[in-house]
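quick one
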Amino acid sequence: MKKKITLTINDWQYPLEVSPNRTLLDILREELGLMGTKQGCDSGECGSCTVLMDGMPVLACLTLACEVDGAKIQTIEGVSQGGELHPLQKAFVEHGAIQCGFCTPGMVLSALALIRAHPTPDIEAIKKGISGNLCRCTGYAKIIEAIHQAGKSAA
Ligand code: FES
Ligand code: FES
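structure w/ FE2/S2 (inorganic) cluster:
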């Protein structure tokens, strides 16, 4: 039986009717067309589906939508500001931290949560902050440099 919930996604309210087995990832991608949140392993291993829920990173593929009624969700579509890339996104571009880009939305959201909590994270804190996000392209060095630079610029 479907349950009525309301999610606030990127500052827009969405009244929804969801089946008990639908994940937040299903709702974002298939019902709302927010395809920036990526579906990788669909089993909690890769971090490509990371979004922020009430400011904290969560794996959307492991989050049942019916259990997060009232939550405030931020996806990659809600990170840019007034049509401008967020400084963190700019740093990813400037440091060549994006290759295929599949991991990038999840990486950016994990990094955003980290920088909001610790505006100038050191390298070890950055490694820990993105430890749940796998990238099969870049080898991580450029991603870590980008996050480090974004933290320094924001300080
Ligand atoms: S798609 Fe969610 S962790 Fe891989
Ligand atoms: S840039 Fe391709 S998976 Fe990270």
